[in-house]
Amino acid sequence: MPDIAVPHIPDPQPTLDPEDWAQTRALGHRMLDDMIDWLAGARARPVWQRMPDALRAELRTPIPRQGAPMDAVYADFQRFVLPYSSANEHPRMMGWVNGGGSPAGFLAELLTGIFNVNCGGRDHAAIEVERLVVAWAAEMVGMPAETTGILLTGSSMANMVAVLVARRAALGGRVRAQGLRSAPLVAYASAAAHGCVPRALDMAGIGSDALRAVPAGPDHRMDVPSLRRAIAADSASGLQPFLVVGTAGTVDTGAIDDLAAIADVAQGAGIWFHVDGAFGATAALSRQLRPLLAGIERADSLAFDFHKWAQVPYDAGCVLVRDPAAHIETFAQSLAYLTHAERGLAGNPPWPRDLGPDLSREFRALKVWMTLKAYGADGIARVVESGCAVARHLAARIAREPELELLAPVVLNIVCFRVAAGAADLDRLNRDVVADLQEAGIAAPSTTTIGGRLAIRAALFNHRTVEADADALVDGVLAMARRRSEGRVHQATADHRHPEYPA
Predict the structure, then answer these.
(1) Are 112 and 312 in contact (CB under 8 A)?
(2) What pLDDT shows up at residue 216?
């Protein structure tokens, strides 16, 4: 390469950059210090606070025509946003399948924002980091080294990508241009599968009615003999079975389907085997828990999230596809302005845009890479095992309380239970108790329905959660239920923390 000097061009004005970088540096340091203090002090705060109506009304302003100093904007963030977050970082946020984030992850997000990288394609380091993260994911679950994949917003989009790849595998390349043309495709998943599975069929143009909800047994796992019968009946009726979805960690109870048996059925029927492992796939990092996932390595595709049990900040979903050709042929396009080249910035194919729906994509892989580098696979495995241990402790505590009832087996880290006495309408009582706990800032479980009964659902995904947090949940449930049974209805105080039950 000829020795050509890089031209020096003075920074033009005006730009969005500050005239005084020292002020920006000082504000950035203050923000970082404040946010580290926020994380370090999580236990001292209520789990959740509702944003007051007056503050909501004040927040809703017309679009500003003139800018404001960044320190004033930051002050508004501290006033309007920070105190009223969803509180995923809090150890007693137990309601939904949300990870707690980590210091390594949030520092990676800071770096990502500075880079402002578009990971749709081109030849740059971010693409290589994403490829490495995908390779690590395949290694985690035992899929082949040549497995392809990309990072997406979450398992909803990852399941969608898998459905599209399975659709093309069933109908061939013509489906991309011609559509389904009334192809009688049918798919199968447990009745306990996540709602994003029928939604993916809907968005893929196949229709949610094409999904057969295979009954689940008392253990909340797919009944495999029922799956065999359903495939046989549809085939005999002239329909085309093309996809079976196994679930590794149901959202309600954490149950894991018999993935090896489902893989056998799919192989025998010649149909695509996909696993929705949104959170459960991460258990493959644990030598103790990995046997529960036997068969996951046989999947044709897998969807899961790093932002759940792996504690990566939102959003960081992942899809893996065993057959690279099937994956690329589902999404790749020949467009003049996106042509690959042998040299230069347009090299290094295939690009992520050849493997999924997005051309504009953020650098999600950096926070995954930095999290796994900082804590290691064994560190994340310890988080997974700890969550399961706390769940077992919670289940044992519930078993010792006569007023409480466990509603489902505890397989991983989700515990479903309820108050079993104290009101004629127990569903209403348990629903109110959950809301009381949330408004008091004690703990934030959620609700679901198990066997037709409303359950209190504790999902223990935060790496900061310990047995004492599980005990605080039970103590709070019992206290709130007794108050309601005695007619002393809970009313949250101004800061949404009941004085008798400090955080």
Answers:
(1) no
(2) 96
- Are 274 and 302 spatial neighbours (Cβ–Cβ below 8 Å)? yes
* Range 118-363 has CATH code 3.40.1190.20: no
Query: 409 in the Ramachandran plot: left (φ > 0), alpha (ψ -120 to 50) or beta?
Result: beta
Give the class (CATH, top level) of 21-97.
mainly alpha
According to DSSP, the residues that pair with 302 across neighbouring strands are 275, 320
* Closest-CA residue to 300 (of 284, 324, 283): 324
Strand locations in 112-191, DSSP E? 148-152, 185-190
Specify the pLDDT at position 346. Answer: 79
Tokens of 127: 């693409």
pLDDT at 94: 96
Q: Which residues of the chain have pLDDT under 50?
A: 492-503
pLDDT of residue 233: 98
Q: What SS3 state is found at 122?
A: coil
Nearest residue to 227 (alpha-carbon basis) of 251, 204, 250, 243: 243
Of 21, 176, 34, 38, which is closest to residue 101 (Cα–Cα)?
Answer: 38
447: helix, strand or coil: strand
pLDDT of residue 341: 72
Q: Which tokens go with 362?
A: 């953020």
- Which helix (DSSP H) or strand (DSSP E) does residue 242 occupy? strand 240-247
Q: At what angle do helices 426-440 and 467-485 cross, to 10 degrees?
A: 120
Distance in angstroms (rounded) separating the CA atoms of residues 41 and 39: 5
Q: How many helices (H) and strands (E) does the chain have?
A: 14, 11
Residue whose C-alpha is closest to residue 302's, from 166, 488, 206: 166
Q: What are phi and psi of 490, to 5 degrees?
A: -65, 135
- For the chain, residues classed under CATH 3.40.640.10 are 118-363
Confidence (pLDDT) at 490: 58
What pLDDT, in 10s, does the model give residues 132-175? 999 999 999 999 999 999 999 999 999 999 999 999 999 999 99
Task: Give residue 336's pLDDT.
Answer: 57
Q: What's this model's pTM, rounded to 2 decimal places?
A: 0.93
